[in-house]
């Protein structure tokens, strides 16, 4: 699988999820799930900015390319890792705070707040240790610790929902579970890709499957929200 096809497929999944979330917005506009619509639109904005180098490469003489070269600072589009690193920490915070909103068990809430503090501290520490890392590459410690933190907090959410039958919306469960599967699939690749030889096709295949799960969960969650009256409880769907 060529990288261009892979990236195009991911963009398509993002756009489909965002369109569905936008169409069904009125069904969940008064719930915390609305912040995922904002996150999806922000992600598309980030991807658009991130695609500028490709546009410049394939269309070097276009009016857009001339405008970028003449008017836009180089750092904004040449080394745009900073944009994706910022997007990653924002994404983690949206997921964390979303789950924290629903958690009722005191010790789970305390641990979740602690994890949020740790991830912010890790992000800041990476910047202090190497101020240029945000411009050069994905911030590995933030990415790994953020994913592990999400798996822990997400487990709290699912445990509380299933064990105590709190009145959570099915939309929230689907989104959180889809995110957990995504991190379970992608973190090992990120961690071990430099230690073991990973077949390129298998690498892209796993990442594509993970993104299908992630954005598929968004699509299914918001379609489910539109099919209910927004008062449907998770426990009604689970039993």
SSE layout and pairing:
Elements: H1 3-23, H2 25-28, H3 34-50, H4 52-58, H5 63-71, H6 74-77, H7 81-102, H8 106-129, H9 133-136, H10 140-164, H11 170-192, H12 200-227, H13 234-238
Helix pairs in contact: 1-3, 1-12, 3-7, 7-8, 7-10, 8-10, 10-11, 11-12
Written description of the protein model:
The chain has 239 residues and is mostly helical. The protein has one domain (3-238). It contains 13 helices and no strands. The protein has helices at 3-23, 25-28, 34-50, 52-58, 63-71, 74-77, 81-102, 106-129, 133-136, 140-164, 170-192, 200-227, 234-238. Helix 8 packs antiparallel against helix 10 (140-164). The longest helix is centred in the C-terminal third of the chain and has 28 residues, at 200-227. It starts with a helix and ends with a helix.
Whole-number count of domains: 1
> Which spans of ≥5 residues are poorly predicted at pLDDT below 50?
229-239
Q: Can you write the helix and strand succession as a string?
A: HHHHHHHHHHHHH
Helix content: over 70%
Structural class: mainly alpha
- Whole-Å distance between the termini? 41 Å
* Largest β sheet strand count, sense and barrel closure: none
User: If you compute it from the alpha carbons, what radius of gyration comes out, rounded to the nearest whole angstrom?
Assistant: 19 Å
What is this entry, summarized?
The chain is an all-alpha fold. The protein has 13 helices and no strands. Helix content is 81%, strand content 0%.
Q: Which key phrases capture this entry?
A:
13 helices, single chain, 81% helix, 239 residues, disordered C terminus, mainly alpha
